[in-house]
Amino acid sequence: MEFREKQAIYLQIAEYVCEQILRKQWQLGSKIMSIRDLAVIMEVNPNTVQRAYDFLQQRDIITNKRGIGYFIEEDAIDRVISFKKEQFIENELPVFFRSIYLLKMPLDDLKARYQGFIDQNFKETNHEK
Amino acid sequence: MIQFNNLSFGYSRKKLLYKNLSLSIESGSIYGLLGKNGAGKSTLLKNMVGTLFPVEGNVMINGMNPQSRKPSFLQTIYYIAEDVYVPSLTIKQYKNLFSPFYPQFNEENFYKYLQELEVSVDGKLNKLSFGQQKKFVIAFALACNTKVLLMDEPTNGLDIPSKAQFRKLIASVMNDDRIIFISTHQIRDLENMIDKVLIVDNGNLLLHSSITDIAERLCFKTVSEIPAGVKVLYSEKMLRGISVIIENLNGEDSALNLEHLFNGVTENPAMAKQLFSSN
Q1: Cβ–Cβ of B252/A4 closer than 8 Å?
Q2: What is the rounded distance in angstroms from the CA atom of residue B134 to the CA atom of residue B158?
Q3: Structural domains of chain B in order of their starting residue, each with its CATH number
Q4: Which residues on chain A are in Cβ contact (under 8 Å) with B220?
Q5: Residues of B in Cβ contact (< 8 Å) with A101
Q6: FRET label pair with B117: which of B51, B125, B129, B189, CA 20 to 30 Å apart?
Q7: Inside any domain, residue A83
């Protein structure tokens, strides 16, 4: 059993951006925070944010309009989800599996808990749909 | 750009601390100079700013030699010593007296930085607490907009919110033309700010590498058993297992732990050299 203590910082920043998109805090097609502003908020080196933005650009999640700034691609949502899913499967799921295995929690028990969690935390979102 | 050309330095000629040090430092990066107490961190900074002179070789900063102490050089560099000194002046008097030496000084930013660091503006500077004096000097130094900014243990004496504010300020003033060079052993305060790492010990430069390069070569993780057949630069027992730095054979992208890296490199310099030698 092995795990990473932390994600590389630039990936944490990329995940943060994706999280904002998924939670609709940042709208599709809109301009996002400049590299410097995000570096100040996150208290990281601007070069690290640059790397995160380069990474998101490679995955066609954001685009750089020269001289104006970075924008979220109109159709980014599927790619955001697939990136977040990849990260989740790689980082969080093994830790989760390890715990339920060690604690002898059958997967079936988790179903009801999962439903309860959804009802409690995402009620409004479900209504909207 | 800062260029160390075969620099040798010692406080006495018989006992040299640095021997034939060659090193180039590029603009657009925040350098973290790490070393134990007495490793020669401050000595290196003083050679860069011209308060100490090399015994042999030289340092060139953007084509200028600090040793000549020309005003045209001095206006492009600011050095914040670990123990700051402020005279018996008010903030305004200090600014009026010293800012003319720095043509790029920005008064508006100066007062903005003071406000962000919560330095009170009335009274004489030497009556302020050490932490407040230090923050005052940091605000002044940043407002000077010099091409090179050298800081010796800048977070020493800063309270918790000021450390965060300091990081935000550094992120906001960094640009491609600047070199910010920070000597510290408070690695955690600045872990995510630094993008180039220098480790010195006994006058030897043990590591000079970018964060990206380090992450490509090394993998930082926690394991239940130390893997066999790979180079292990460092290991330490932690609550959740053994925290290790091993060679990065599978191209994993892990977050650096500079504290562990420092321990690994200083305890095991030969292996570090080997891990960083190939391209």
Answers
A1: yes
A2: 8
A3: 2-202 (3.40.50.300), 210-277 (no CATH)
A4: 4-5
A5: none
A6: B51
A7: no
Which tokens belong to B77?
Answer: 């560099």
Cβ contact (<8 Å) for B255 and A47? no
CB contact under 8 A, B222 and A4: yes
Distance from the Cα of B117 to chain A's closest Cα (Å) equals: 14
CA distance B10 to chain A (A): 34
Q: Is residue A89 part of a domain?
A: no
Nearest to A4 among B29, B171, B221 (CB): B221
Indicate the number of domains in chain A. Answer: 1
What phi, psi does B28 have (nearest 5°)? 85, 15
**Is residue A78 packed enough to be buried (19+ CB in 10 Å), middle (13-18) or exposed (0-12)?**
exposed
Distance CA B164, CA B169 (A): 9
DSSP summary character for residue B226? P
Regarding pTM above 0.95, the answer is no
Cα–Cα dist B64/B70, whole Å? 9
CATH of the domain at A51: 1.10.10.10
Residue A20 sits in which domain range? Answer: 9-77
Q: Do B223 and A2 lie within an 8 Å CB cutoff?
A: yes
The Cβ of residue A119 has, within 10 Å, a number of other Cβ atoms equal to 10
What ipTM score was computed for the predicted complex, to two decimals?
Answer: 0.89
Which among B112, B177, B245, B254 is the top mutation candidate for probing chain A, defined by the most A β-carbons within 10 Å of its own β-carbon?
Answer: B254
B222: nearest CB among A3, A12, A40: A3
Interface contact flag, A5 B30, Cβ < 8 Å: no
> What does the pLDDT average to over B202-224?
93
Residue A33 lies in a domain: yes
DSSP three-state, residue A70: strand
The pLDDT tens digits of the residues spanning A16-69 come to: 999 999 999 999 999 999 999 999 999 999 999 999 999 999 999 999 998 899
- Least Cα separation, residue B267 to chain A (angstroms): 22
Which residues from chain A sit within 8 angstroms of residue B174, using beta carbons?
A: 39, 45-46
Task: Give B28's DSSP letter.
Answer: T
Rounded-to-integer distance, Cα A49 and Cα B46, Å: 32
CA distances from B91 to B52, B82, B86, B94, B133 (A): 29, 20, 10, 5, 10
**What is the CA B76 to chain-centroid distance, rounded?**
17
